[in-house]
């Protein structure tokens, strides 16, 4: 897939979504038919290269048969008109994707929720550019990925248009709708928080160190990979923050006026490097996202005068030693990709690598990692191969113990 152009209209009260999705793609093999991922929405029409195509939609798959073969290497377009009441996609981690708030909507798609609101090739390594246009009642603000390029207000509704020119995985595409006001944060990079008006003071305090955090991470990881960074704070409480490209979403419960969730602010910001710009090709490599973001929490603690990363590492190593050691970090299994042990063991792996390389080579490695694969797709093997270039000593025993053995390595 090359590009998604989504034109949506959403009515908050009845939770009604209608959409036109125009997809630009290239055939990687001669195709007489192909399929897209799409959830419980009704499909009204499908066209391929402007010609009406046959289709069948069931079991969350949209199977399309164009009137003529698509030759290998040929670019083509798919237009899907669809609508209905969007609902989250069922998964072992609960409902994923488009969901209603008390007064608005949220998209939380990781890892398989994107088909809840648009037809797509829902694989993390299939990144594309996006244009997202959403029409909603004028009291509501719409926030989506990328740069806001236009706002057109009609008698009772407003259309918001966003463009994301950097390659993006489908699960990282997001639309947030609510009665939000905007607060700009200081700093050279545009940083904005959308939030309920009643939370303004808490937002300014709790995100007040985000620009310093941005500077610290820029020094450690390399330049921030996007043009801006947006945070949305919903009126509802959320179990955990939501990751999207160029954007993070927090619940009202994460904003207490005392920076009680600042480690989560650091975690979600770090995902812009590790997860959004650099995106895994297979979910088995989830530690490349969550282990790095967890370690960023420890690095922020260290840089901001809190507990050093070494202290966090000692404490979490003791905790993990007392828990089951029944998975391999480099491939924990589908049902364990969001297990907290994956996050913490991933961070411990990076801390062990830092100890083996030394600070200078370690952070040089991270900066080259984010630069070499900027806006691309990554894997564990790519990372370990790159790391090997930063020392004359073999890193095989370190990675064998941390990544490929269920048992924690000895101290």
For the largest sheet, list the strands in their spatial order. Answer: 5-4-8-2-1-11-14-13
Structural class estimated from helices and strands = alpha+beta
What would the average pLDDT be, to the nearest integer?
A: 97
The low-pLDDT segments are: none
Q: Helical element count?
A: 9
CATH superfamily of the largest domain: tricorn interacting facor f3 domain
Beta-strand share of residues: 25-35%
CATH class of the largest domain: Mainly Beta
Q: Report how far the terminal alpha carbons are from each other.
A: 46 Å
Helicity range: 25-40%
Number of domains: 3
Tell me about the biggest sheet? 8 strands, mixed
Looking at the chains present, what oligomeric state does this protein adopt?
Answer: single chain
Overall strand count: 22
CATH architecture of the largest domain: Sandwich
Rounded Rg? 22 Å
Give the overall form.
Answer: globular
Write down the CATH topology of the largest domain: Immunoglobulin-like
């Amino acid at each position: 897939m090359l590009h998604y152009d989504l034109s949506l209209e959403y009515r908050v009260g009845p939770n009604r979504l209608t959409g036109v999705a125009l997809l630009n793609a290239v055939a990687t093999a001669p195709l007489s038919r192909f399929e897209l991922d799409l959830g419980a929405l009704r499909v009204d029409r499908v066209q391929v290269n402007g010609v009406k195509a046959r289709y069948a939609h069931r079991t969350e798959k949209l199977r399309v048969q164009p009137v003529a073969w698509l030759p290998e290497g040929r670019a083509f377009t798919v237009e899907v008109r669809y609508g209905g009441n969007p609902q989250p996609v069922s998964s072992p981690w609960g409902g994923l994707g488009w969901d209603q708030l008390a007064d608005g909507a949220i998209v939380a798609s990781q890892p398989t929720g994107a088909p809840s609101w648009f037809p797509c090739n829902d694989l993390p390594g299939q990144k594309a550019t996006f244009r997202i246009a959403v029409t909603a009642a004028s009291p509501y603000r719409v926030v989506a990925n990328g740069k806001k390029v236009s706002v057109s207000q009609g008698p009772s509704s407003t259309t918001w248009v966003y463009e994301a020119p950097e390659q993006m995985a489908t699960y990282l595409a997001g639309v947030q709708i609510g009665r939000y006001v905007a607060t700009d944060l200081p700093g050279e990079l545009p940083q904005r928080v959308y939030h309920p008006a009643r939370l303004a003071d808490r937002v300014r305090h709790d995100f007040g160190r985000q620009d310093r955090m941005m500077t610290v991470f820029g020094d450690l990881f390399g330049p921030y990979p996007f043009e801006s960074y947006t945070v949305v704070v919903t009126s509802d409480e959320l179990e955990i923050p939501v990751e999207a490209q160029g954007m993070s979403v927090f619940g009202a419960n994460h904003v207490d006026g005392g920076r009680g969730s600042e480690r989560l602010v650091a975690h979600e910001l770090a995902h812009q490097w590790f997860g959004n710009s650099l995106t895994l090709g297979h979910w088995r490599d989830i530690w490349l996202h969550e282990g790095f973001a967890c370690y960023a929490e420890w690095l922020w603690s260290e840089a901001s005068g809190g507990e050093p990363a070494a202290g966090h590492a000692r404490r979490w190593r003791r905790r993990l030693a007392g828990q089951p050691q029944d998975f391999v970090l480099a491939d924990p299994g589908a049902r364990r990709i969001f297990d907290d042990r994956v996050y913490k063991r991933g961070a411990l792996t990076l801390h062990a690598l830092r100890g083996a390389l030394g600070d200078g080579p370690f952070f040089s490695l991270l900066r080259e990692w984010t630069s070499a694969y900027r806006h691309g797709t990554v894997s564990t093997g790519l990372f370990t191969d790159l790391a090997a270039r930063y020392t004359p000593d073999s890193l095989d025993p370190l990675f064998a113990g941390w990544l490929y053995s269920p048992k924690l390595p000895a101290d």
